[in-house]
Amino acid sequence: MNVLIPTPLRSYTGQRVVEATGSTLGELVADLDRQFPGIRFRMINEQDRTRPHVRFFVNGKQVFDLSQPLHLADEIVIVQALSGG
Amino acid sequence: MATNVRKTPRATAERRLVVLVATRKGAWLYHGDAGRKIWRADGPHFLGHIVNHLVLDPRDGRTLLMAAKTGHLGPTIFRSTDLGRSWKEAERPPAFSKEPAGQSGRTVDHTFWLTPGHASEPDAWYAGTSPQGLFRSGDGGTTWDPFSWINDDPQYRKWMGTVQDGTPDGPKLHSIIVDPRDPAHLYFAMSGGGVHESVDRGQNWSPIVAGLEVVEGFDTANIAFHDPHCVRLCPGNPDRLYQQNHCGIYRLDRPSNEWLRIGKRMPQRIGDIGFPIVVHPRDPDTVWVFPMDGTSVWPRTSPDGVPAVYVTRDGGRTWRPTAAGMPESQAWWTVKRQAMTADANEPVGLYFGTTSGELWVSRDEGRQWDCIAAHLPEIYAVEAAVPA
Description:
The structure holds 2 protein chains of 2 kinds.
Chain A: E1 2-4, H1 10-13, E2 17-19, H2 25-35, H3 39-43, E3 54-58, E4 61-63, E5 75-80
Parallel strand pairs in A: 1-5
Antiparallel strand pairs in A: 1-2, 3-4, 3-5
Chain B: E1 17-23, E2 26-32, E3 39-45, E4 50-56, E5 64-69, E6 76-80, E7 88-89, E8 110-116, E9 125-130, E10 133-137, E11 145-146, H1 154-160, E12 172-178, E13 186-191, E14 194-198, E15 206-207, E16 228-234, E17 237-245, E18 248-253, E19 260-261, E20 274-279, E21 287-291, E22 309-312, E23 320-322, E24 340-342, E25 350-353, E26 359-362, E27 370-373, E28 379-385
Antiparallel strand pairs in B: 1-2, 1-28, 2-3, 4-5, 5-6, 6-7, 8-9, 9-10, 10-11, 12-13, 13-14, 14-15, 16-17, 17-18, 18-19, 20-21, 21-22, 22-23, 24-25, 25-26, 26-27
């Protein structure tokens, strides 16, 4: 699956779009962390909850549950909302 | 008969220094010459990251640890073994234990404080976080684990309070101190939550709050109400500690467990409120503080807009201001608890950073002050270190 990486996390990937695999969103994030160590903890906290300003979209639909099933053709977008100064 | 006494010349500073500046928008290293007169800025490192602390390992003079996060991404630790030329992220940053499914557990918002371990434990580091937690690394900062049992202890959790208690951007565990004589003898402090000591490497902890005052109307017997801002141990006498507290300046001479409020001797119009406290590297009677306005709504700026560092040379019996070189009016500075420090040269150099982004240096223990950098982001921490 293609995963669009937001600019604050591109220091990990070095690329705008990367490939990752997983049958669930949680597995996909784990695969990203295997490829790009440290990236998961910047997005998901130690209680396995998505951090407040990080959002995952699957085929354009916002997803909050890491157990969300994924399919090979899905397009994943990670969004990093910015606010404040 | 009078004796001619030949004064020993004062030693000149010979060691190169680096001043580590952590800010709300990144980190800078200021490399000084031997005279501490010419400074070369190296930075920003991690521009845009919120850097709460940047510390050079005194055991190798080469390894830097940086506690960082961004406004929206999770917290992490960056590590450099070449004085900042390259950085690598910790494999496992400080994080609380995962709670069983269905229960809400705590999450580290940011690592606030870093302390290198004892000289005999070259890879040990300690970290304090917000919300309050105590962590240790045994591999030079690459992986971190909760240290001791306090993070999950019901009594300590009660003293730690919630994210709504303590400082505006979250309660802090800070002032982690390792006794230079004994790696098992540890202290830490919490804002709020008191000062705590272990003599057995964290197997047991005891609060040390006797003599400390709390805000009027609160009960001094409740550890949660104690708000130490910064605690320092004197290298020249490790049985002596000084503390800048929300409610005054204190000294503790062990084995006593009772703090003495030495800030009562500060000029009344200045008061003894502030965040940082700095101890002399050799003389346990010499301490510097940066008083702030703690009246009415607590502006936490220099009283009357006239900044000054105050020094005692007699363990807190008398205090006097040192401000030569600083603005004489309309300077409403705030200096945070980690943003003032000393080097170990002779004479001692002093350094502080303001929340308005100025870095000030004194090469002569406060007699004269110079601004060596301005227009930086809000300064969170300043450390002076000797690179290898």
